[in-house]
Amino acid sequence: MTNKGIAPTWRLVAAAGVLGWMLDAFDFFVVVFLFDALAQHFKVSKASVVYTLTATLAMRPVGSVLFGTLADTIGRKRPLILCVLFFSTCTVLSGFAPTYNVFLVCRALYGIGMGGYWGVGASYAIESSPIRVRGILSGIIQAGYPMGYLLAAVAMQTIARDFGWRAVFFVGAPVAVLVVVLTYLAPESEAWHQHRPESGNRVFLSLIANRATFAYLLLMMTLLIFLSHGSQNLYPDFLRSIPAMVGKSILGMDVALGIPVLFNVGAIAGALIFGALSQRVGRRGAILLALVIAMISIPAWAYGNSVATLSVGSFFMQIGVQGAFGVIPAHLNELSPDTARSLFAGFVYQLGVLLASPATALEFILSRHLGYRWALTIFEVGLIVLMMIIVWLGPEAKNSNFLRAMETRA
Q1: Where are the beta strands (DSSP E) in 109-171?
Q2: pLDDT, tens digit, for every residue of 272-308?
Q3: Torsions phi, psi of 98, nearest 5?
Q4: What stretch of H or E contains 32?
Q5: Is 201 part of any domain?
Q6: Residue 94 lies in domain
């Protein structure tokens, strides 16, 4: 370690965390693009294929508890390696699945790995890096998710087209091997060494002791994930419902595909910008500013009638929404107890995902009664206002030391 408590190889840990989360997102979103192909191949309804996504999401909290507890008990490295090998194996097996039931089981098991990776990878990366880069690293980690989405879309236009749909379940395997190598070469977390709990029971006791903070962060994460799903999931369908968009294109694609590609670029930019900004203005300040940008984007995002207006509105909407998300890896880890950081941060995140899973269905029901424009507006404005109140009133531990030996300005 250096005299400031940070190993010079911390970049290996950061690279492993970012690449692993990007791979996780890629392996999840390829199914989104394969609803029709999978339904036809397995001779089931499209709803049955959609249900595999529900199974994946439902198992994510299980993975966060399993791998998070392991990481807090035996160290970050081995559980992270085990987790990436586990979810990558499940992904490859998904491509070989002979029946729908086998595919469903593979995707449910994959959800355990997906749920486990974020908590372990984010805590390992954040606590292993210098404080001065914590904000930008937080944004880079979270930007891995929309980047995985974009790469999945590219894979469907290239790999799946040339080699068939099964191939997209295999293409991530080399990246998994790279993540394993990077993690193997990286040092174990010094913060974990210093705060290592005596047993797994001590990890859960720490979770219980910090239940008030857990409850607050769970509420914040649930609302933020509601906001994210509400701003993205039904937007392509909303675009198809606008008469003025019929036959229009952008980036050489139909607007219902081209605008989502564009707003995912905005999502990546937002995560990077506001993650970095949080190092200057604080975690809560950066989240609040990002939410303001999302709020002022709503008129163009929900009421635009031209390709240009809707593109700009959705781009800045995702800069705001995913900008707020870009602060989360640093914010959650700084507010987590030292002896249960992987479990605490990961479980809060993944349980929030589970609680927010009805977001798309609720927004769709609202659209049936009010129309898409009003449904999108009411849903997102309400969530943004609630998020602002909760973040404004909540705690912050910006730049908190995870190492007893680390200086304030590492």
Answers
A1: none
A2: 999 999 999 999 999 999 999 999 999 999 999 899 9
A3: -85, -25
A4: helix 10-32
A5: no
A6: 1-190
